[in-house]
Amino acid sequence: MSKEKGTMIGLECHVQLNTDSKLFCGCKTTAEEPNSACCPICLGHPGTKPVLNAKALDYAMKVALALDCEINQEFFFSRKTYFYPDMSKNFQITQYEIPVGEKGHIMLSNGKKVGITRVHLEEDPAALVHTEGMGSSNFCLVDYNRSGIPLVEIVTDPDMETPEEARDFLDQLTIILSYLKVFSPTTGTLKADCNVSVYGNNRVEVKNVSGKKGVEKALAFEVARQKHVLLEDKEIAMETRAFDEEKGTTRATRSKETEADYGYIFESDLTAFRLKKSEIDEMRNKLPELHGAKSKRFTEAFGLDEYTSKVLAGNFALGNLFEQVAKDTDANLAANFLTRELMAVVNRSELDIDSLELDSKEISSMLSLRSSGKITEKVAKDAIIVYLTKGVKPTKFIDGQGLAMDLNKGEIEKAVEKAMAENKAAVADLKRGKQKSLNFIVGQVMRLTRAKANPKEVQNIILKRIKGE
Fold first, then answer.
1. Which part of the chain is CATH 1.10.10.410?
2. Sign of CA dihedral 245, 246, 252, 254
3. CA atoms of 237 and 232, how far apart (whole Å)
């Protein structure tokens, strides 16, 4: 479906940078008590002067470079004027005329290129706490702790055509942010303003949608709503809407402002900023290998299939763990175990792999035992479950439970002999060709040996006995 006839979607993504202090003052970006991390600067008291957080600027440059943007060597800040309780000085310091970077792109999973219009810095407004339903009177509280926290805004071209593509864009963006270490998904926020139009009609903006799932749901509803409006032969209003996550619907909040409505003016309390080409080149050289390049390298260097490589490279911590484990054990075994067994435990137990401190040597040692046949697949799975949920290292768990398969052939043969003697009906069925009985007898041997025998070796001994060898 073409852009002229179909759906056009663009996102304005607001990413909270994980700096210790705010964008223009020394206040902390974290605080437990409301209104306890604010000062005359972030509250906009007369006579105060903002000072740019150098780390926030570095982070914004990293993001822009990672998105293949052109970096502007000279830029400045502007005042975006609006009167609302969440901005006590009645304007927001942001970038309008010249951003940090522009004209970049992100590649989606389907190979589609989504253009990045601009990447710029701005301060976060305060948090509004609505008290509807908390008492007889409805009123709104304001927490200025959030006021002035540094945000990087990433504005896309209207290149996406489905809600699924928008979610994929956010997937790719969050992976890049995790590699750059500029955003913490556990303490920071990532919200998107979703701009959408259908069949070339008026554009509607759905403001402040949280999370990838929320963006996908909001866009799905909004696309369907706009198409329904057209089916009723009505005009789509150019407006701003809010998303109700619980109901999965959007509602109108106000008519859409134009850029002129904000009355942008130069921020006179901040000078223009100039970057040397050498400074930009130095930052570019410090960028880590990103997930696309890492996935390709995994496929070429370790012989992994494309899907497994993408899964591993799709998480910075997982990719690094794989490379460490693969140094000491089989790469394919490591890749399959980490993407399937380890990540299954992480997801099921709702753990954050980025915050887990995992010993790659321990996992390598366990997988070496698995590849040599000294422990079963089940033992490896149990060991990783105990490691991630209880902190007991795999080798200690295996040794402590006596789970290593260290029986000699004579001991295994004695166990087979006993199992076959105690299960004569199953032996008779096996002789008649019933293969299910073989699994049963193997299971009995594993019970007798406390899973210390190699199942394949047990199976071979049983079959030889059946054949009378």
1. 409-467
2. negative
3. 14
Q: Three-class SS string for 234-301?
A: CCCCCEEEEEECCCCEEEEEEECCCHHHHCCEECCCCCCEECCHHHHHHHHHHCCCCHHHHHHHHHHH
pLDDT in tens, 433-466: 888 899 999 999 888 887 777 788 888 899 988 8
Question: Which token pair is 79?
Answer: 């005042």
C-alpha–C-alpha distance, residues 166 and 24, integer Å: 32
Rounded CA-CA distance 18/35 in Å is 19
Fold of 409-467: Arc Repressor Mutant, subunit A (1.10.10)
Instruction: Report the distance separating Cα 48 and Cα 10, nearest Å.
Output: 37
Q: Per-residue pLDDT for 1 more than 50?
A: no
Q: Residue 295 corresponds to which tokens in the numbers above?
A: 């996935």
Q: What is the DSSP string of 2-40?
A: -TTTSEEEEEEEEEE---SB-SSSS-BS--SSTT-S--T
Residues in the chain: 469
